[in-house]
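As agreed, record copied across for absentees:
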Amino acid sequence: MFPFSLINRARLYLYPSQAPNKNAESPKLPSDIIFNVIDELAASGDSRTLATVSLLSTTFRDYAQTRVFGSVSITSRETLFSFQDSIKPSSARGSRLASKVKALAVVLDYDDPFHITEDHFVSLVRACPSLRSLSVSIQGCKDPICAAPLVDQQQRPKGCPAPSFNRSTIAQLRRLAPHVSHLEMTNWSDNGDMSIQLLEALPSLKSVVLRGTIPQTLPAVHQADAPCSLDSLAFELSVQPTSDVVQWLIGRYATDLLTLSFGFEPSSALLETALAQCTSTLQTLSLPSCPPLRDNLLHDCAELTSLEIQSFSTTSSTLDNLPKSLRRVLLGVSDLLFDPESFEFLRQLPRLTTVSLSFLRAIDGQRVVRDVVRARGIGCEVFL
């Protein structure tokens, strides 16, 4: 929905108060209004209306197509062929539209006999020279009896685990996607190695989100290949990985990790392993909850500036010894009854500038803010 102010400003130009002059040229909207309207449409996710707006005039078209083709999702062969028709390299228009694609999402559903193939995937990446962000969703059968690769993928039994990417695909991706810096890998197949293969195929990656499954044992990779160096790594997995695999992942791909996020509650051993790999560099840590940790582990993260714990118990002693570098703390308090003195640890953080707290009861939030946070003059947000 457009902001009312934008609609009213547009009306002033489209419908002037004086009687229209039939010989006069149609009034033109200022570019800033056009851009604002298109930006609002893009932000709302209304791609159908955005596509319609792009057909209104050349003024609307040029900017709207930047937003329409800026982020593309290919979920079936139908959408694949439609997109390919729009970006035919034989036409100047097709080349121009292809160059606008910055983010590409692809679904590889190996349970579908007419799924998007590896060759299709490679051709999509080849067609988008300005690609910066890649989202790949893998689906396949859970029955390991089907794991043997078949020559004809169209003959593949429905429900087989997704086959690994072949070496030719990995080599082509390394050559065709030299500037892709963000990857979201959602793997719902039992073949966890596919996530690692894409990490190897995209050496310019800086941020990665891993969903679904990853290997439970150390994967075999060609150590001669130059790996990516991640700044940000998020685990949103359906099965908790082993400590060995997480240690290997961070050690190979994220030796200078700045941001670490878990979408599931990690075990104490897993979190300790991960933090030990990036103690000297980590700046942002996000957890659904914080398990007990060995003494001083968080305190040793001397560069940590932001800490988020979505469900925090005031009975936990984990936060008693936080690094003095913290500037931002976000806590979701899970206790119904607690003593405001449980938040005294906030007083020990000299650089703290922002606190966001979520409470089950309003009165608890008021007491903590009054007695602990605002007494220090810290900016604070309270959510109930």
Summary: Residues 1-20, 147-154 have pLDDT under 50 and may be disordered.
